[in-house]
Design a protein that fits this description.
Elements lengths: L16 H27 L4 H9 L18 H12 L3 H22 L5 H21 L3 E2 L18 E5 L2 E11 L7 E8 L9 E7 L5 E4 L13 E11 L9 H8 L8 H19 L15 H27 L6 H29 L10 H9 L9 H13 L8
Parallel strand pairs: 1-4, 2-4
Antiparallel strand pairs: 2-3, 3-7, 4-5, 6-7
Helix pairs in contact: 1-3, 3-4, 3-7, 4-7, 7-8, 7-9, 7-10, 8-9, 9-10, 9-11
The structure holds flavin-adenine dinucleotide (FAD).
């Protein structure tokens, strides 16, 4: 059994039987994921073996509702599983986020949104197609949204366009930082319906097959951290997709982004997992329990004890806010819950990196050798605060603005 200090929710947190089972399943995959993590990082290669294990364990369908053959995980359950995977391999957890949210958002989350009966029927028809690919064929979905413009931050329409044609859409544009590039079977792309004036309200969410004519992967991938995500550039040149490629009906993604803000917190559990891993490593290292390291005999120094205490305080603050945020998540959350969601995202992303920094400083020089996981955790943790739409900076920006202005309010 996992020591509750190193679990994502600690002892005494109420989990239902399904959550318990899924967390144990994720923990059971963990040691093998951790063993492979160094290689994926060194090679900047995609964690194919881990995905084969996720598929065999039935976890690719984690967030597919049960009525469509999946494991029916809701937002909270997903976030707990994701954080658990993050303890073992950040790149696997982060890419799994893109895949799982491709089913969570059109799944339970979309059920909370307003749709006309016709839209609801259309959505059901389309999501059966997507969910069966995942559950029956083991398909992997990605979420390439970023374009290097203001769009991924939610401040402008996406420049990638979808033009209405007979029986479907023709997609043109470019996406950067497309995690799972070359590995995904489908790319869930956000684009804007091509009209004389592009509008964020016309955001369209469509799944483009990896093998579609006109789609290509470009550029190299040699980043600081999260190297196993293989987040290269995607180019779309007159790519045709049929109507059933729509992952949400027209206009509904815009509604989701406005009314279900916690959907944008789903990257953060990965980084909570990384923070837990760095803390656990530090305790085990100072106790002389990390295989392959010399007995360090340093734990008797008050400075080490204070540093470990400081890390624990940060970790507990982070975990507590994360768990509180999970309680808040719902459609149309009240203002304090929305502000807390930004605060949770900010805290997890910043503290994860800070806990990793403290871990290296506390364990010392030998702990940052490439043969040990700490330096990879440190580099991976650096990426969290940069991820749109809720970068650490943009969370502060939103908190400040939304605290001081009510919707529609302006200065004279
Ligand atoms: C490992 C990794 C994997 C990724 N995977 C994916 C993926 O699968 N799909 C995907 O869509 N994206 C992905 N991204 C991209 C990520 O979400 C960001 O889009 C990307 O990091 C933005 O980089 P940029 O330099 O273009 O940001 P910019 O847009 O140039 O922003 C730079 C910084 O400026 C700030 N900023 C931006 N806009 C504003 C504003 N309006 N007001 C105030 N401040 C602002 C933000 O804090 C931001 O960090 C990934 C990124 C990383 C690092």
């Amino acid at each position: 059994m996992t020591d509750p200090r190193y679990s994502v929710c600690g002892s005494g947190y109420r989990l239902d039987a399904r959550q318990q089972e899924l967390l144990e399943l994720a923990e059971s995959l963990g040691p093998r994921f951790a063993e492979r993590a160094g290689r994926y990082d060194r090679e900047a290669s995609f964690p194919y073996e881990n995905y084969a294990e996720l598929r065999d364990a039935g976890l690719l369908g984690l967030c597919v509702p049960e009525k469509f053959g999946g494991r029916g995980a809701d937002f909270r359950t997903y976030s707990l599983v994701s954080a658990t995977l993050g303890k073992f391999c950040g790149a696997t957890a982060l890419t799994f986020n893109m895949h799982a949210c491709s089913t969570l958002w059109p799944g339970t989350l979309a059920d909370d949104l307003d749709m006309t009966p016709a839209q609801r029927a259309e959505h059901d028809e389309h999501r059966i197609v997507h969910f069966s690919r995942v559950v029956r064929e083991g398909a992997i979905y990605a979420q390439p949204f970023s374009e290097g413009s203001a769009a991924a931050a939610g401040k402008a329409p996406f420049g990638t366009t979808a033009t209405r044609v007979d029986g479907g859409w023709r997609i043109n544009g470019k996406k950067i930082f497309a995690s799972l590039s070359g590995a995904a079977h489908y790319y869930g792309v956000l684009c804007t319906e091509a009209k004389p004036e592009l509008s964020m309200r016309d955001t369209l969410y469509v799944a483009v097959p990896g093998a579609a004519a006109g789609l290509s992967v470009a550029g190299d991938w040699d980043p600081l951290g999260m190297r196993g995500t293989v987040s290269r550039t995607l180019l779309f040149r007159d790519v045709f997709v049929p109507d059933e490629a729509q992952m949400m009906p027209r206009g509904v993604y815009f509604q989701a982004a406005s009314r279900w803000p916690h959907m944008f917190t789903t990257l953060s559990p990965t980084y909570l997992g990384i923070a837990i891993a760095a803390y656990e490593f530090t305790v085990r290292y100072l106790r002389g329990e990390v295989a392959g390291t010399p007995p360090v005999k340093r734990r008797m120094y008050p400075t080490k004890q204070i540093a470990v205490a400081e890390m624990w305080v940060k970790l507990e603050q982070t975990r507590a806010l994360f768990l509180r945020m999970l309680d808040d998540a719902r459609v149309d959350p009240p203002k304090d819950a929305r502000l807390r969601a930004y605060a949770s995202q900010y805290t997890i992303m910043e503290n994860s990196n800070d806990i990793c920094r403290l871990a290296i400083r506390t364990c010392g020089g030998q702990s940052m050798l490439k043969s040990l996981p700490l330096e990879r955790l440190y580099r991976d943790s650096r990426c969290g605060a940069l991820m749109l739409p809720w970068t650490a900076e943009l969370c502060l920006d939103r908190i400040g603005r939304e605290a001081l202005y009510e919707p529609g309010e302006q200065d004279d």
